[in-house]
């Protein structure tokens, strides 16, 4: 019989220990507050230093989490990601749940007029976030357990001319998360991909709402339900799963005629 990693046999403290990367985003804040309902003993909110990160920490403390630390990092500074993730794990001792909610929307449109800005979207959403995911996965593999929640998007499954760069960036992250999830399962680490549709946040303010638009709070509730049933993929709202299944089989000539 193969011996289990000693870290898997350590007693669990009361409450979970959570790391949130992109901790000032509205969806991340909603997820953190939702998970606090199940009891968090410690949390580290990591993101760009500023008022938003401090407000998120105060909100989580008010939700009943006794200890909340903040940590700054730059999504584009991939060279600094290992140090940042190791620092977060050191602050928490071990991490039960890591939520990866780093991303930018960028400009709408297919072929971007500002190609350097479009490349930054790819760098943040795919390269930077992918780097943070891999460093988090490395640390969780070393501790022998844990769950990583990766905020992807329905855009990863439905590339559109109206937002081609964002769709591509999320597709890259989504594929990386699913592949790592398959590899890490044997190490006691779960990766759960969350694919929201259009979410009403500051980032989407002013954009026309498509059918099945949702809120950050509903995405958070769907995430919490997914964690409880140990899901590999969560759609928010759930009806998106069936819509995507239908749209996948449409001929491309018809798909491209759909409203943006």
Question: Which key terms come to mind for this protein?
Answer:
260 residues; Rossmann fold; two-stranded parallel ribbon; 8 helices; 9 strands; 18% strand; disordered N terminus
Summarize the structure.
The chain has 260 residues and is an alpha/beta fold.
Descriptive notes:
The chain has 260 residues and is of the alpha/beta class. It has a single domain, classed as 3-Layer(aba) Sandwich (Rossmann fold), CATH 3.40.50.720. 43% of the residues lie in helices and 18% in strands. Strands 3-2-1-4-5-6-9 form a seven-stranded parallel sheet, sandwiched between helices. A two-stranded parallel sheet has the order 7-8. α1 links the parallel β1 and β2. The longest helix has 29 residues. It is globular, with a radius of gyration of 18 Å. The chain starts with 15 loop residues before the first strand and ends in a 5-residue tail after the last helix.
Secondary structure elements and pairings:
Blueprint: E1 16-21, H1 26-36, E2 40-47, H2 51-62, E3 67-72, H3 81-92, E4 97-100, H4 115-143, E5 146-151, H5 164-184, E6 189-196, E7 199-200, E8 214-215, H6 216-228, E9 233-236, H7 240-248, H8 252-255
Parallel strand pairs: 1-2, 1-4, 2-3, 4-5, 5-6, 6-9, 7-8
Helix pairs in contact: 1-6, 3-4, 4-5
How many angstroms separate the termini? 55 Å
Counted by DSSP, the helix tally is 8
Helix content: 40-55%
The overall average pLDDT, rounded, is 90
Q: Report strand order across the widest sheet.
A: 3-2-1-4-5-6-9
- Poorly predicted tracts of residues: 1-14
What's the story with the biggest beta sheet?
7 strands, parallel
CATH level 4 superfamily: NAD(P)-binding Rossmann-like Domain
Looking at the structure, the CATH topology is: Rossmann fold
Shape: globular
Q: Give me the count of strands.
A: 9
Order of helices and strands: EHEHEHEHEHEEEHEHH
CATH top level is Alpha Beta
The number of domains is 1
CATH architecture: 3-Layer(aba) Sandwich
Strand content: 15-25%
Task: Using the CA coordinates, give the radius of gyration.
Answer: 18 Å
**Which structural category fits the helices and strands?**
alpha/beta
